[in-house]
Amino acid sequence: MKGSQKVIDSLNALLANELAAIDQYFIHSRMYDDWGLAKLYERLNHEMDEEKQHCDWIIKRILFLEGVPCMTKRRDLLVGTDARSMMSNDLTLELEVVQGVRKTIAICESEGDYQTREILEKLLFDTEEDHVYWLEQQLGLMDKIGMQNYIQSQMS
């Protein structure tokens, strides 16, 4: 089914952010593991897998619309140097994803592509209700209990 080029281009822009999220979560999870923060390692490794699933959804949809997924473009990574900066950078990336998904949903609506919109609504829910919420929660915990207590709580 030949899809709208506007939708395909917008999906490729989303793909660039999702691919960057995989890379960013990959390096951050390995940093947490190296520091002995097993709980953060496990959570970020899980998030990395979810980002792969998001990429899968987007790639399959681009192919269905007879487009070509662009796997070579990614936004710049925001690699942190400590748990707070890493989470803050991850939140920045996730909020960009939310903004991009909302923009793409609007493009899908204007182009009459309601099936792609439905796929993106699931991605938006996953990003807002899971990823963003968890990151905001962790940053809030750092403020409430202090960094030393937070870091200690993330050890195995």
From TrEMBL:
Residues 1-146 form the Ferritin-like diiron domain. GO terms for biological process: intracellular iron ion homeostasis; iron ion transport. Its EC number is 1.16.3.1. SUPFAM superfamilies: Ferritin-like. Signal peptide: none annotated. Keywords: Heme, Ion transport, Iron, Iron storage, Iron transport, Metal-binding, Oxidoreductase, Transport. It is an enzyme of class 1 (oxidoreductase). Fe cation 1 binds at residues 18, 51, 54, 128. It catalyses: Fe(2+)(in) = Fe(2+)(out); 4 Fe(2+) + O2 + 4 H(+) = 4 Fe(3+) + 2 H2O. Fe cation 2 binds at residues 51, 94, 128, 131. Fe cation 3 binds at residues 46, 50. PANTHER family: BACTERIOFERRITIN. Iron-storage protein, whose ferroxidase center binds Fe(2+), oxidizes it using dioxygen to Fe(3+), and participates in the subsequent Fe(3+) oxide mineral core formation within the central cavity of the BFR protein shell. Belongs to the bacterioferritin family. This is Bacterioferritin. It comes from Marinomonas spartinae.
